[in-house]
Amino acid sequence: MEQQQLYKKIANIVENQIKNGSLTYGDRLPSVRSAQKLYNVSLNTAKSAYMELESRSLIESRPKSGFFVSLAGQRRMSIPSISTFKIDEKKQDPAALIDKVFHSLEDKEITRFSLGLPSPSLLPIQKLNKCILETVHELHDYGDQYGQVQGSPTLRKEIAKWSLVLEGKISDEDLIITSGAMNAIYSCLRAVTKPGYTIAVESPLYFGFIQAFQVLGLKTIEIPTHPITGIELDALKKVIHKIDVCCFVSNFSNPLGALMPDEHKKELVKLLAFHHIPLIEDDLYGNIYFGSSRPKPCKYFDEEGLVMWCGSVTKVLAPSFRIGWVEPGQYKDKILKQRLIQTISQPAIYQEAVAKFLQIGRYDHHLNTFRKKLYSNYINFRNSIEAHFPENTKMSQPEGGFVLWLEMDPKIDSTVLYDYALKQKLSFAPGRMFTQHDQFKNCIRLNYAVDWNEKTANDLMRLGRFFKAVI
Amino acid sequence: MEQQQLYKKIANIVENQIKNGSLTYGDRLPSVRSAQKLYNVSLNTAKSAYMELESRSLIESRPKSGFFVSLAGQRRMSIPSISTFKIDEKKQDPAALIDKVFHSLEDKEITRFSLGLPSPSLLPIQKLNKCILETVHELHDYGDQYGQVQGSPTLRKEIAKWSLVLEGKISDEDLIITSGAMNAIYSCLRAVTKPGYTIAVESPLYFGFIQAFQVLGLKTIEIPTHPITGIELDALKKVIHKIDVCCFVSNFSNPLGALMPDEHKKELVKLLAFHHIPLIEDDLYGNIYFGSSRPKPCKYFDEEGLVMWCGSVTKVLAPSFRIGWVEPGQYKDKILKQRLIQTISQPAIYQEAVAKFLQIGRYDHHLNTFRKKLYSNYINFRNSIEAHFPENTKMSQPEGGFVLWLEMDPKIDSTVLYDYALKQKLSFAPGRMFTQHDQFKNCIRLNYAVDWNEKTANDLMRLGRFFKAVI
């Protein structure tokens, strides 16, 4: 244990040197033996520290030359711009574009950087299958009765137990199981809005929300959003008198990957409490963090019960299971009523299988592996984008999740280029999908929760060259 | 085969004699040997015919005396009254009563005549379990992708195939899979209504609808409904100018068990087409008929695509599977949009397991057994109610489904009596649950999809005596 911490400590020291610029791309690191002496540790510890740095893609070994700071360690690209208010501009929902992108994904030969889901190979499918089989064998009467409207008590207990980040502030009695996070959001919206209500959202935002808000007759105000810190609170304050409800992805938003700092979350919750505005918090990426600990949700700072905290296993375990949940604050009865009239109850098998997966501790193990894999993919993507995409490309710096947001030359229209890329069996999510206004046309979203192999590497390079060629 | 038909023919002849009154309660039938000669058949055939009549509860054997016409063959009780318009009367949704009835059912010692689901013992749980297991073994990638918004293509094909009653008028392309019939109805309502719209419904009606309409902000007009033939078309015509949408259970409505005759359905569809009013048709009991053939839904007569035909496996296979569907007529796109924003897609296992159950022909076999059992239960209930309930009790005459509607002495208040019956471990559904107005307090709904055994028989008798004692 002691030794393990030591090698990580050294790796962290070197990482900091790289990040603060005392070591830059191409710099040679001390040899392992020098490092051993330098840090006064065993040879093994020094070796482990360098291996750790390699696994973080911060350094690379060159045969017979030693270790060098890799390109990945360097911040070369600047971050995308902060979006601005477009309140007075004409709205046009990107329905047709969303439809097109979805339908074109049916061709399995296309490399789907456009997808919003992890590649199956990164998910614990086999282990989940086993849980399903065990559940089916154990359940005897799962077909003959409605389950509880609130969802399986076992699953609710497990989710409450795993919500460590909330430090015991929620219990199984509070949670409501839903058909995925989307259904949690939908049920919250139905509980606290009426047609004509105004909802504040991030900008860019997940296109599924745009569709839902439109169908529910809500007016949407896209709040300027910082690619690193999320919603701009000062901007929100300017329009707060117009807002009836907020819906934010506070941890690793989609598509920006922004993470609201704790102080922002605290201030946001306070602001909303002052104005009695409910917040639907979609925290479905919170467990996929690259940092040292799971970021807190706004829910953590909520004292009034105005925050409806939504989550799901969709992005980390199994998209098609449709298991999500919401901690509904003061809106529990309203949301239960919505669930009841939507479908009375939810089928048992998936709920019990997920409960089992959490119970036997496979969740933690999977998340650890998954996070490492995603971080390594992120670095690989960053390296490739820096090397092969147009020089003036700006790139988000997610500290979790699995999407990258690229802002490219203003000449680029990714909506139009989408069709051309498709012909080359490449896909990306055009920026225009993520807004109701005429913006982000020079942006794209890429999914790095893929198998990083020769083909993927080559396809990403091809995509970069494709954009270069356009300019 | 030939012999089987023969004994049924004879049984039918005798049944007709009983029904038209040429044989009445207590009449002695010819001995088996006499019947053999009378009908010029084998001794076995004559025996089988009498056994068939016994299984229909039309005759009973008395030891050493022979066979006699039983009480069941006689129509003694009159049918409940036709409901009347209460448009101008104050509305009060029975939410508290519904809640109470649901919560009190948690005590497993209570005989739950109040329940709206068949007893597990009447459902093919074991066979469905097998289908689930086979499905889990066969599906390899069921966790890693969203399914189609419209639902599993395999299941849609099977449902289209099994919708024989529509004579090929629908295809798998038309159907949308939902989370049970309730979700089908909900999605239809969301697709064609806005808060403030007025919806025409039966009276009494399924309390789940009352809850849904209330939450969705719809105004409900309860249309006078005949216990045998359903919605009174003349009454509907009187208020048709106020109606935005209709929601009817045309086959074996709940709780009345009414079955609209074909001519009524035809006229209804024509009327609604003339006024461009959509009809949400909940046909979830249609396959549980006691007559010679499956009654047609209104959908069959629909040429404009105004009828949204909803169904599910909830009442005949497995309540908790939450598998339903809708043939959405001209509203397909709108309903798909609703499904998408509700939950994106539905999990695979239950859909594929039900598809498998339909595919291998177990559905037909199960329905045959289930129908026979229900019919026999119905006769047993009728006999017991005639024998043990107050003299002036009126009783519905369902030709399918599994609920009975009793109208009792006006002095009876079933809402109040519910609590007293509960203390005797008996439950029924108070009539007040099935309306938004102050009516049906002297009515109750009983579920006869139960195990008919000594205990049930005794409990039903106790319930009858309970009401008798009150009067």
UniProtKB/TrEMBL annotation, chains A, B:
Keyword Transcription: yes
Domain of life according to the entry: Bacteria
Transmembrane parts of this sequence: none
Alphabetized Pfam families for the sequence: Aminotran_1_2, GntR
Gene3D superfamilies given in the database record: Aspartate Aminotransferase, domain 1, Type I PLP-dependent aspartate aminotransferase-like (Major domain), Winged helix-like DNA-binding domain superfamily/Winged helix DNA-binding domain
Keywords noted in UniProt: DNA-binding, Pyridoxal phosphate, Transcription, Transcription regulation
Residue ranges constituting the HTH gntR-type domain according to the UniProt record: 4-72
GO terms assigned for molecular function: DNA binding; DNA-binding transcription factor activity; pyridoxal phosphate binding
SUPFAM superfamilies noted in UniProt: PLP-dependent transferases (SSF53383), Winged helix' DNA-binding domain (SSF46785)
Cross-referenced InterPro entries: Aminotransferase_I/II_large, HTH_trans_reg/aminotransferase, PyrdxlP-dep_Trfase, PyrdxlP-dep_Trfase_major, PyrdxlP-dep_Trfase_small, Tscrpt_reg_HTH_GntR, WH-like_DNA-bd_sf, WH_DNA-bd_sf
UniProt keyword annotation of Zinc present: no
PANTHER family recorded: HTH-TYPE TRANSCRIPTIONAL REGULATORY PROTEIN GABR
Similarity comment text for this entry: In the C-terminal section; belongs to the class-I pyridoxal-phosphate-dependent aminotransferase family.
Record's protein name: GntR family transcriptional regulator
Protein source organism: Sphingobacterium detergens
